[in-house]
């Protein structure tokens, strides 16, 4: 039994190590972390808008704040033209830098305009946020 426990722990730790090193470039990992935070906030707001998650003004406000904060970091985390095999960023980001920054700013603006105090406000503002995300992903993401 003890041997089985040791093998299980070893397998779990080796998987964690492999996952932790799947992105080799720390700059790329940082921007992926920013995007993951944005995705998580969108999941909360989208879940509320769809009725899959009960509306909670505090949680909606926290998700909105995350969107504002993280979208404000997008340009800074992409500024250096860094690559990694796991990256989904297209070279067109750096070829069209001003457009990319403008789109990142559009996301911040849309997030700031969200009314997180009511379900109707979330539903009303989520379309603008989603459109902003989609436009950038369509142009700059594999």
Tell me what you see in this structure.
α2 (26-50) runs antiparallel to α3 (57-71), α2 packs antiparallel against α7 (119-140) and α6 packs antiparallel against α7 (119-140). 23% of the residues are buried. Residues 1-20 have low confidence and may be disordered. By secondary structure, the chain is mostly helical. 75% of the residues lie in helices and 0% in strands. It is elongated and about 40 Å long. The termini are far apart.
Give the overall average pLDDT. Answer: 88
Low-confidence stretches: 1-20
> How many distinct beta strands?
0
Distance between the termini: 47 Å
Q: Give the helices and strands as they follow along the chain.
A: HHHHHHH
| Radius of gyration, taken over Cα atoms and rounded to an integer in Å | 18 Å
Largest β-sheet summary: none
Strand percentage? under 5%
Give the % helix. Answer: over 70%
